[in-house]
Fold this sequence. Notes:
The chain has eleven helices and twelve strands. The protein is of the alpha+beta class. Residues 192-247 form the HAMP domain. Keywords: ATP-binding, Kinase, Membrane, Nucleotide-binding, Phosphoprotein, Transferase, Transmembrane, Transmembrane helix.
Amino acid sequence: MTDEHAIDDQPQGRLGLSGKLLALTALFVMVSEILIFVPSVANFRLNYIDDQLNRARTAALALDAAPDGMVAEPLARKLLRVVEARAIVMKTGEARRLLAVADMPPEVAITVDRRESVGPSAVLEAFDAMLNGDRRLARVIADGPSEGDVIEIVVDETALRNAMLAFSSKVLLLALVISLVTGALVYVTLDLMIVRPVRRLTESMVDFADAPEDASRVVVASGRADEIGVAEAELERMQLEIHGQFQQKSRLAALGLAVSKINHDLRNMLASAQLMSDRLQSVSDPTVQKLAPRLIATLDRAINFCQSTLSYGAAHENPPSRRMTPLADVVEDVRTALGLASGGPVGFVSAVERGLTVDADPDQIFRTLLNLGRNAMQAFESRGGPDPTRDQIRVLGRREGAVVVIELSDTGPGLPPKAREHLFEPFQGSTRTGGTGLGLAIAAELVRAHGGSISLVDGTMGATFRFTIPDRPIDLQARARERERARA
């Protein structure tokens, strides 16, 4: 079974969210009705007994008012039928009088004293009457019609039991109807407000997982202000982010494939150029002798770049080959690679501390500064081309303890807010049309490979990037000797 059918095809014997909601709704409503039904039955029994006692008090007054306390037997039986009792006894002080009796009743089974306060036992007594009250006699004791009197009646609980069963049937039927109506209303309401939106979110997640490259499968938030609305909005944001990252990864994979195809031919061409440049060393022209070493070094770097197939293509960056390197020499190579000669349209200032060495891979530091410098040149081009009276690139280098701080700043227009939000992210941080943003991404990766950090400095004219290269934690004496050799 595939994921897209996982929601609809529930395993047998298992309820979905809707089924569980319906079952729990019915259960809780029935529990509520039972909690109402139980005290209602107990109260019905007590009211029934109190009604019998009230009638017995009225009958006792009539019987007590008869001459010599004697009434005709037909009247006595009639009064007993009205009271629904077998016998009526009045107790005044210590004297007990049998006011009326139908037949001499057998021994009573239980005694109910209504003079005592009602407690939780009334519930148990009510159910005991429903279960065992058939043809069972009970003696009921209560206050008499006059102060100080006590009246007792002997009753058959059969009539009480039948009345309680009839009452229970009506209550249960009413509870069933209320449960069905309430349960249906609660179920429909919760299904519309909770279950269906949650199901929609679940289906969207499963559907999106099958094809994250399809933007039409991204959930659209309903704009609700409750927790489900927040979940919808967050899911939409997350799916859009994943969709963007998926597209980015696809483009990176395509870039890696394209670079790997270009790399073979480009490397061969550079190797041929390297062979021809080697012959320049035999030319005696002073200008050629001055430029030949830099040309050869540049070709060596280009061949090494082809060997690594560029970052973010099909390969990752090689670990840095670190050594103590004079930073001023690397900065001068960057100036040459950018084509910034003295008196050119863009000024170049090197403010590197005298004799400053950095514990780093010189080629990777060169690439970092070159990428940042090219970004500055592109910024100048974006506002109509370089202006020799305004545009300048400045490289600053200084040591702060065991860390070398390097800054490259320009006098360009700076970075817009959109580019700042996705700084150092490939295909996200470019400020020009058609740009890929790989320059900053590569620079950030190379700096982090050295254990350093890179950031954009706020509050400066144009754009200023600062990155740090910490020294490796090795023996200080060996490091000092290495620095001395680099200075020599």
